[in-house]
């Protein structure tokens, strides 16, 4: 009986050994290539490649743009037109970086031009004046987050000017914004109801209605980090770009 079993095992072993692994390897390789092509085409077809620098005037958007693209901290100048340039992220291919002017008259028009191509939105905050300007900062962030075009974007809240001793930390800024967004959401939704719904440009409801507002409830992936364009401390931003590009 044992002999019979041994014979069967031997036969099996011989058969396994005889299998030609060539076609299997070729099939695996072809499968891998097909998946890679699918992933690349999908990425291209979404057409979202831009990274937008947004936020109020004087938060440091142009300084960040100039540091990343030209390694310079510029003398002050107010931008009324967007700055556009290719940023080489590490060893990867480049992304288009757009510095949206912060002045309220041009801000929204310019943002509307680029928002459908945006993969990432960098919301730059002046960490020194944020508490004083909390309503303006929050209004601007609310408009961006409730825009239906930004729902697939990743968002980075960049708490800039951390070289200043009076700068608020990203944790403090996050909770200031969370509280204020709760209030702004109430005010804006009441305004919308009184005007009547405009179905074409209906903004997305932010977070969970009836609950305290939390960043964890929104559809965008949002993160809070610190930076100083002045001291060229922009690793938090460049690492984030490399991760999501
Ligand atoms: N201390 C400090 N000042 C900064 C920093 N980034 C920008 N600034 C200054 O803040 C002001 C506004 O910067 P700018 O880039 O023009 O802001 P933008 O209006 O958002 O483009 C300028 O005087 C900059 O020199 C920073 O990281 N630290
Ligand atoms: Mg500027």
From TrEMBL:
Name the keywords, alphabetized.
Answer: Endoplasmic reticulum, GTP-binding, Membrane, Nucleotide-binding, Receptor, Transmembrane, Transmembrane helix
One family from Pfam that matches here is SRPRB
Q: Which SUPFAM superfamilies match?
A: P-loop containing nucleoside triphosphate hydrolases
Name the domain of life this protein comes from.
Eukaryota
Q: Mind telling me which InterPro entries this protein's record contains?
A: P-loop_NTPase, Small_GTPase_ARF, SRP_receptor_beta_su
Q: GO MF annotations for this entry?
A: GTP binding; GTPase activity
Listed GO CC annotations: endoplasmic reticulum membrane; Golgi apparatus
Q: What membrane topology term does the record carry?
A: Single-pass membrane protein
* Compartment(s): Endoplasmic reticulum membrane
Listed under GO biological process in this entry are: Golgi to plasma membrane protein transport; intracellular protein transport; protein localization to Golgi apparatus
**Which residue spans adopt a coiled-coil conformation according to this UniProt entry?**
none
Provide the transmembrane region boundaries. Answer: 24-41
Family, according to the entry, reads as follows:
Belongs to the SRP receptor beta subunit family.
Tell me what this protein is called. Signal recognition particle receptor subunit beta
């Amino acid at each position: 009986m044992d002999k019979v079993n041994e014979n069967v095992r031997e036969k099996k072993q011989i058969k396994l050994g005889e299998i030609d692994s060539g076609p299997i390897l070729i099939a695996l390789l072809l499968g891998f290539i097909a998946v890679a092509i699918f992933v690349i085409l999908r990425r291209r077809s979404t057409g979202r490649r831009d990274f937008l620098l947004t936020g109020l005037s004087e938060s440091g958007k142009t300084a960040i743009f100039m540091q990343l693209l030209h390694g310079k901290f510029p003398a002050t100048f107010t931008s009324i037109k967007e700055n556009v340039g290719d940023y080489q992220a590490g060893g990867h291919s480049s992304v288009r970086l757009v510095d949206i002017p912060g002045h309220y008259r041009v801000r929204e028009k310019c943002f509307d031009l680029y928002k459908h191509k945006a993969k990432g939105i960098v919301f730059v905050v002046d960490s020194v004046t944020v508490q004083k300007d909390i309503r303006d900062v929050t209004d601007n962030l609310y408009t961006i987050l409730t825009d239906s075009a930004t729902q697939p974007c990743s968002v980075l809240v960049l708490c800039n000017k951390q070289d200043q001793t009076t700068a608020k930390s990203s944790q403090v800024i996050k909770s200031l914004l969370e509280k204020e967004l709760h209030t702004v959401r109430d005010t804006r939704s009441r305004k919308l109801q009184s005007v009547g719904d405009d179905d074409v440009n209906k903004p997305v409801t932010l977070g969970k209605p009836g609950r305290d507002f939390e960043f964890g409830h929104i559809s965008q992936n949002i993160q809070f980090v610190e930076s100083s364009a002045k001291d060229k401390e922009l690793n938090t931003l460049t690492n984030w770009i490399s991760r999501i590009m």
